[in-house]
Design brief:
Chain A is an alpha/beta fold and 484 residues long. In chain A, 39% of the residues lie in helices and 13% in strands. The chains are: A alpha/beta (484), B alpha+beta (481). At the A-B interface, helix 10 of A face loops of B.
């Protein structure tokens, strides 16, 4: 039996009915990883031993009729989530040998539900990048075509799930790092409302934008794991004081009569014909399912990219100050004095993109520039959020492409940061406004998948998943898997 | 140079860092107790491990609100935190979580007593922030050690307006703040352990000059006396520099208590653009009116209120009342003593006299006194009710101090009760007179001052126990015979 062809929900059923054991399921994935990942490079660490031990415990619990909610299901974790006693590198030389002394809330919650960690996935260094080319551990291949990037920063998570080396993976999204790689690898990727998922133990890039989520093969699979990850955490002051939402009960409800907004500012711009065609087909599908299509205006949306590239670097410039070679992580050899220790540790430990963003952020916060950059960006951020609130007075979700196109070739944009930054033009606004967003596969071009994005109102992940699921019940795009 | 000072005036502002006496740190659950082995009280959050997040210890809000009320200040709501960015090994995150806009306490004042009377000093703001760790430069050859036990300890930084005009005023202001934080029980205010630290901004200008001079900041002066000396030194130094034709450099200086001088810190240590921005890991805090009201209902009587009460309730002089009320523990001790002794004046004298002397001698706080307030009250009661004389009381006090015994135990054990029986005193006097016929003759022939001699002899004969007034009266009548 090809266990990896089963959906996560089918795997859970299989485990419950004792059709196969968690050890069998886990071993099956570990075997696939050892066979295929040398090429893809989607994992930084494979935790074979721990995984089999966890799987064994899950099997025991099934035998003793004490099984947990997601017992025995394998999962891959982005290497940004701290896992006690296991390397957590954040894709950086700075943390290449770092073993966290504690576990992130996301890991702990899923572990408490019995999920089996297969390993830690590759990512852009400190989650800064859109191609997974900035990782200290080397680039990740797109399973659909190895010459192409998988997107980033959660490139390893997307690549591993797309290649069916893991049935699902955690990921994080600061400006599109879940949705963009999901789009480029043909997956369903959801970033919930800011504050839904605890950031405790999730290594910070830009604190007011970072949010954990999942990449999966369907909305249904994504729903059960996201439900498990969500909920209030007293260790994160920005985590919403709400119980974990019910994301599954409403999944199969009809979307008939609900409204989809199309932001005219997104559709006014020229987009590649294949993107336009895929989006139009998706719109037609939704119409046929009874949804109503409405034009909306997000008049400040064009400010999103500049706002993002002030706020995210500003926050990262402070968040990454702790990597100074004093307490843990990389330390330069034979520092002459304190300043040399700081300077060379950071010069040698960080890659070019991380340094670029620290410099931009430091500049934007400097005396004399703060008002013109950071303060103004924060004000404009509020304008973007207001545009969304206005739009959600009339529509249920907002639809657009996830990315400007399908995956690009490795190396194609790595010398041009501004071109690379444009990858996130459709995804960034949801981070600025703290809103949930999902990318679902809706087409292809030249053998590479393409996603559409739905953005929902605050706390309406259930509605996004409902829209995604009803689409997936009527289309086949999400079932396409690459031939590795 | 001192003569020239008369033509100058000083403009002084103080920044006082008060370590709040919470059990755990400002943003983590680690303990704040003093003196533990290095790095045993630093958790993952204090160590700034990747991925950790701050969670506010809400106890500090109560403390700051109380201070704000004692300083007649506004409590800001919302109040918010900011990151202050700088690299230093004892600052684990590379930034300090502090407050910039919307500090919790703003626009207050404090009245201090000076030689020229009462003076009002404005308090610009008081904000919450976390303390840094410590760099230990002397423990390892060629290397520095980092102790992060103190990292994350809550501080309130209280910033005054530049309205202080002399070193004496600065100390009066500092002592007043010290008294308030001790009353509020929000800090132990121990300057030697660094629970209260003071930075002084000092500039000078010629009297009448509307322009402010260039200021220097003198850092971390760790006693009241040193604050006074450091500021005085800095005023005189600045006047001397300007009168010698030099200019003052705006800089941070360190006070050297051994040499009684200030010297500039290396410029690298403070030339920073702190790049403040709102702390994204903590949301702004809304302080509801009812919440503030609840906190204020728990406010204790403050030093000024207590002083007024002591004057009216116990008929103490303002001077005595001020001395007693300045320290909460002394004031409490005093009230307990009075409760038993019923003599406010005598109790004041004993506390300020004998007790203070012993405490100073052994460098003890009143709360650690070897003679409890109850025992001292009993002692004073025995003076008041005539059981013992004041002189004997001093001896008994010494014994109580060293043995820990009760006053009555010592009186009975050593037979020290005052002799008040007229007949007994008479017979002692008769004996003294009989034994000193020469002096008697001289006295009777007009040498009046020999009266004291006889008193002394009688007291000696009674081992100090005879009631002095009775001795006087009886002796006088006998000698006149």
């Amino acid at each position: 039996m090809e266990l990896h062809k089963l959906s996560l929900i089918e795997q859970l059923e299989g485990l419950k009915k004792n059709e196969f054991s968690s050890v069998e399921l886990t071993s099956h994935y570990l075997k696939r990883i050892s066979e295929h990942d040398e090429k893809l490079n989607s994992f930084i660490t494979v935790t074979e031993e721990q995984a089999l031990a966890q799987a064994k415990l899950a099997d025991d619990r099934y035998k003793n009729k004490q099984s947990l909610a997601l017992d025995g299901l394998p999962i891959a974790h982005k290497d940004i989530f701290c896992t006690k006693g296991i390397k957590t590198t954040c894709g950086s030389k700075m943390l290449s040998d770092f073993e966290a002394p504690y576990s992130s809330t996301v890991y702990t919650k899923l572990d408490d539900m019995g999920m089996v960690m297969l390993g830690k996935t590759n990512m852009d260094e400190f989650a800064m990048g859109s191609s997974n080319e900035t990782s200290h551990f080397g680039p990740v291949c797109n399973p659909w075509n190895h010459e192409y990037v998988p997107g980033g920063s959660s490139g390893g998570s997307a690549s591993s799930v797309s290649a069916e080396l893991a049935p699902i993976a955690t990921a994080t999204d600061t400006g599109g790092s879940i949705r963009q790689p999901a789009s480029l690898c043909g997956l369903t990727g959801i970033k919930p409302t800011y504050g839904r998922v605890s950031r405790y133990g999730m290594i910070a890039f830009a604190s007011s934008l970072d949010q954990g989520g999942v990449v999966a093969r369907s909305a249904e699979d994504a729903a059960i794991v996201l439900e498990g990850m969500s909920g209030h955490d007293s260790k994160d002051s920005t985590c919403l004081k709400l119980e974990s939402p019910d994301l599954t009960s409403n999944l199969k409800s009809s979307i008939k009569g609900m409204k989809i907004g199309l932001p005219k500012e997104f559709f006014e711009k020229a987009m590649p014909a294949y993107v336009e065609k895929s989006i139009q087909e998706a719109i037609e599908t939704y119409k046929s399912l009874g949804a109503e299509i409405v034009e909306v205006s997000l008049k400040n949306i064009n400010l999103s990219l500049p706002i993002y590239y002030i706020i995210a670097p500003a926050e990262c410039s402070a968040n990454l100050s702790r990597y100074d070679g004093v307490r843990y992580g990389y330390r330069c050899e034979n520092p002459k004095d304190l300043e040399d220790l700081f300077m060379r540790t950071r010069e040698e430990g960080f890659g070019a993109e991380v340094k670029r963003r620290i410099l931009i952020g430091t500049y934007a916060l400097s005396a004399g520039f703060y008002d013109a950059y950071y303060l103004k960006a924060q004000k404009c951020r509020q304008l973007v959020a207001n545009d969304f609130s206005d739009a959600f007075k009339t529509v249920d979700v907002i639809l657009s492409p996830t990315t400007p196109g399908t995956a690009f070739k490795a190396g194609e944009k790595s010398d041009d940061p501004t071109e690379m930054y444009l990858q996130d033009i459709f995804t960034i606004p949801a981070n600025l406004a703290g809103l949930p967003g999902i990318s679902i596969p809706c087409g292809e071009n030249a053998g590479l998948p393409l996603g559409m994005q739905l953005v929902g109102n605050s706390l309406e992940e259930d509605k996004l998943l409902q829209f995604a699921h009803s689409y997936q019940m009527n289309t086949e795009w999400h079932k396409q898997m690459p031939n590795i | 140079m001192n003569e020239n000072l008369k033509n100058w005036e000083a403009v002084i502002g103080l920044e006082i860092h008060v370590q709040l006496s919470t059990k755990s740190k400002l943003f983590s659950g680690a303990s704040t107790s003093f003196g533990a082995l290095p790095n045993t009280q630093a958790c993952n959050i204090d160590l700034a491990m990747p991925g950790v997040l701050p969670v506010l210890n809400e106890e500090v809000l109560n403390m700051a609100i109380k201070l704000g009320s004692a300083l007649n200040a506004n409590i800001n709501s919302p109040t918010s935190f900011a990151r202050k960015n700088y690299f230093y090994p004892d600052s684990p995150k590379g930034y300090q979580i502090s407050q910039m806009d919307n500090p919790i306490v703003e626009n207050g004042y404090l009245d201090i007593e000076t030689e020229k009377g009462s003076k009002r000093i404005g308090v610009t703001r008081a904000h919450l922030e976390e303390d840094a760790g410590k760099s230990l430069h002397d423990d390892f050859e060629g290397q520095s050690g980092i102790d992060l036990n103190r990292a994350g300890t809550p501080l309130l930084e209280i910033v005054s307006e530049p309205e202080i005009s002399s070193a004496e005023e600065a100390v009066a202001y500092l002592k007043s703040i010290h008294s308030i934080i001790r009353y509020l029980n929000i800090s132990d205010g121990n300057m030697a352990e660094g629970s209260m630290r003071c930075d002084a901004n000092v500039s000078v200008r010629r009297k009448g000059d509307p322009e402010l001079g260039t200021r220097t900041e003198t850092k971390n002066v760790n006693s009241f006396r040193f604050v006074e000396k450091a500021i005085q030194y800095e005023i005189e130094r600045q006047v001397h520099e300007i009168e010698s034709g030099n200019t003052i450099t705006q800089e941070t200086r360190l006070y050297d208590s051994q040499k009684n001088t200030t010297r500039p810190m290396r410029s690298k240590e403070f030339a920073n653009d702190y790049r403040y921005f709102p702390e994204p890991d903590l949301l702004p805090i809304i302080l509801e009116k009812e919440f503030i009201q609840n906190v204020l209902e728990g406010m204790p009587e403050m030093p000024n209120e207590k002083k007024e009460r002591f004057v009216s309730q116990f008929s103490l002089s303002k001077y005595d009342a001020d001395l007693l009320a300045a320290d909460k523990d002394i004031a409490n001790y005093f009230e307990e003593v009075v409760k038993i002794s019923n003599s406010p004046k005598l109790s004041t004298n004993w506390i300020m006299g004998e007790l203070s002397a012993e405490l100073n001698n052994e460098n003890l706080n009143i709360s650690d006194s070897k003679v409890s307030s109850e025992k001292l009250g009993q002692l004073i009661l025995r003076i008041e009710d005539g059981t013992i004389s004041g002189k004997i009381a001093k001896d008994i006090f010494e014994k109580m101090w060293s043995s820990g015994k009760e006053v009555d135990e010592i009186i009975q054990g050593e037979g020290l009760e005052q002799v008040t029986d007229d007949k007994e005193i008479e017979s002692m006097i008769d004996e003294v007179i009989a034994n000193n016929p020469e002096q008697l003759e001289q006295y009777r022939s007009g040498k009046d001052r020999l009266f004291g001699f006889f008193v002394g002899q009688v007291m000696k004969a009674s081992q100090g126990k005879a009631n002095p007034k009775q001795v006087n009266d009886i002796l006088k009548s006998k000698l006149e015979k």
